[in-house]
Amino acid sequence: MGIWRDRLWPSLCHKAMQAARHERHRASSVVRAQGRVLEIGFGTGLNLAHYPASVTHVTGIEPNPGLRKLAVRTMHEYEFPVTLLDMNAERLLFDEGEFDTVVSTWTLCSIRDLDRALAETRRVLKPGGEFIFFEHGLAPDPDLQKWQRRISRVTKHIFDGCTIDRQIADRVAAAGLEIVTLNNFFAEGVPRSEGYIYAGAARKRI
Ligand SMILES: C[S@@+](CC[C@H](N)C(=O)[O-])C[C@H]1O[C@@H](n2cnc3c(N)ncnc32)[C@H](O)[C@@H]1O
Predict the structure, then answer these.
(1) Other CB atoms closer than 10 Å to residue 116's CB: what's the count?
(2) Which of 32, 168, 30, 65 is nearest to 110 (CA)?
(3) Distance 7 CA to ligand 1 centre (A)
């Protein structure tokens, strides 16, 4: 652990993720959440303000100690209880079918073993439960994809693993989760190489 990952990166990440332009995307994504929710890559808890009343408990997992430290400042302000744990999405220490909803926003780009994390997501969801995601990833245009692959080689070293060349929807579907809604678009206010969005939900079949 260095000063960059533990101290500087968490502050920078919190500032960037707090941007006003993200708020409506957070709100429109997590509005589908209900019951017991697991949020992978909890960050500083910026989705908490947007959960609907149908949510009874939020468990956040966050491996970065600096981000956890910033998160605890705000996580007691909500109607529902919030639990924050030091855990990686690749190895979820929960029972099968423990959650009604799993949420991931701007996180699948950074998880080292994404396929393993998605398999774990599926395992901890109840049958019929939903995985809600709002992520950036691989754009459809082959020329842009070339740039995304080049840029990812650099960003993953600087921004704590963040890549921009993952085909998110295909990876979610390959994990055995059935995509029930998917919206792809370029986010406003960011370069096209970093702003191709996959916003959707996928269900664990009953
Ligand atoms: C860009 S931040 C997004 C934070 C938050 N989800 C949000 O919307 O503000 C990416 C997050 O993924 C987390 N992350 C990276 N690798 C992870 C892993 N293997 N398991 C769980 N979270 C991880 C990071 O620590 C960070 O909190």
Answers:
(1) 15
(2) 168
(3) 15
- The yes-or-no verdict on residue 1 having pLDDT over 80 is no
Work out the pLDDT band at 25, boundaries 50, 70, 90.
Answer: very high
Please name the amino acid found at residue 6.
D
**Would the pLDDT of 181 be above 70?**
yes
What is the distance between the alpha carbons of residues 63 and 42, in angstroms, rounded to a whole number? 9
Q: Higher pLDDT residue, 158 or 106?
A: 106
Structure tokens, 170: 């295909």
Please name each of the domains of the chain with its CATH number: 3-203 (3.40.50.150)
Residue 177 C-alpha to ligand 1 middle, in angstroms? Answer: 21
pTM above 0.90, yes or no: yes
Pocket (CB within 6 angstroms of ligand 1) = 13, 17, 40-41, 43, 46, 61-64, 67, 88-90, 105-107, 110-112, 161
Token pair of 86, please?
A: 């030091």
Which of 91, 85, 56, 87 minimizes the C-alpha distance to 72?
A: 85
